[in-house]
Amino acid sequence: MANLLREDASGVYIIAATPFKPNGTIDYNSVDSLLEFYLDKGVTGITILGMMGEANKMSIEEAKEFMGYAVKRISGRVPIVVGISDPGISNLANLAKSSMDVGCSGVMIAPPNGLKTEENIYKYFTTVFESLGDGVPVCYQDYPQSTDVFISVDCFNRLVRHFDQLVMFKHEDCPGLSKLSQIRSAAETDDTLRRVSILVGNGGLYLPEELSRGADGAMTGFSFPEMVVEVVKLFSAGSVEVAKDIFDAYMPLVRYEQQPGFGLAVRKEILRRRGAIKNAETRTPGSSLTNIDHEELSALLSRLQDRLETMG
Asked: Which of 30, 42, 99, 182 would staple 82 via disulfide (CB 3.0–4.6 Å)?
């Protein structure tokens, strides 16, 4: 049985891209090479079928096949979390059961568009947790830039108090540093409130500040996962200024890769250039790089290499 996701989870859970062939089908040879690439870079866990994994462009059957394949390839070397967000509770519960049956460690769920009040959010997740049952650990994905659903600290903590299977908060609200601090402070001052894991996203844009405010690590898909791994380790070891220097070297590329609607194409192209996948295609509808984009990216990668060589 898989090691279940727990509230003390930390480190780097990489958001895996989904490799496709030029004809739009899943490239399973590249799935193999990509997963091994992530493991080689030292990630703590892998999150599949997230928003940057193009899960919204896959059928339920494809998603089930993909998760089964990924679990078999990883073979217990690190935990696997699966994005199962879906407005339909029955579809969501179906995917959750399938993911746990094949050996995943937990699931990640973002609220569906249209939940406009705190009570709507609470009622939706009450139904979700009751449908999934106690044996399915859940990561709440807080990404209002995409979902248009804003959850307060009080509402999130209410869910934490009432549902033990809620063990992780994926922090992607922006600006959201204050929310992160408030969640941490509440757990430290209230004996009735569990401390849950907080992993951060947004491509790592605010990683040093988020780690300083109490995040346990990152859950993001940046194409140089070794940077994220190193920064998190250095922060944990107390070498904060060294961590910030490393992060600063990569910052132009972090920023470029985080462009809304276009960043995934950039990320996949970098992964292709690094030999992790064969093709950089995104599934239709999706962006692709122009000649000018390729030139810009080449310049950014060249400057990054120069900086790293200077740093030794």
From this structure: 99
Local confidence pLDDT in tens for the 312 residues of the chain: 568 999 999 999 999 999 999 999 999 999 999 999 999 999 999 999 988 899 989 999 999 999 999 999 999 999 999 999 988 899 999 999 999 999 999 999 999 998 999 999 999 999 999 999 989 999 999 999 999 999 999 999 999 999 999 999 999 999 899 999 999 999 999 998 999 999 999 999 999 999 999 999 999 999 999 999 999 999 999 999 999 999 999 999 999 999 988 999 999 999 999 999 999 999 988 899 999 999 999 999 999 999 999 987
Q: What is the CATH number of the domain that holds 125?
A: 3.20.20.70
Q: Residue 192 domain-assigned? A: yes
177: nearest Cα among 205, 138, 140? 205
CB 73 within 8 A of CB 98: no
Tally of domains in the chain: 1
Which residue, among 165, 120, 168, 179, has the nearest Cα to 140 in the 3D structure?
168
The model carries a pTM of 0.95
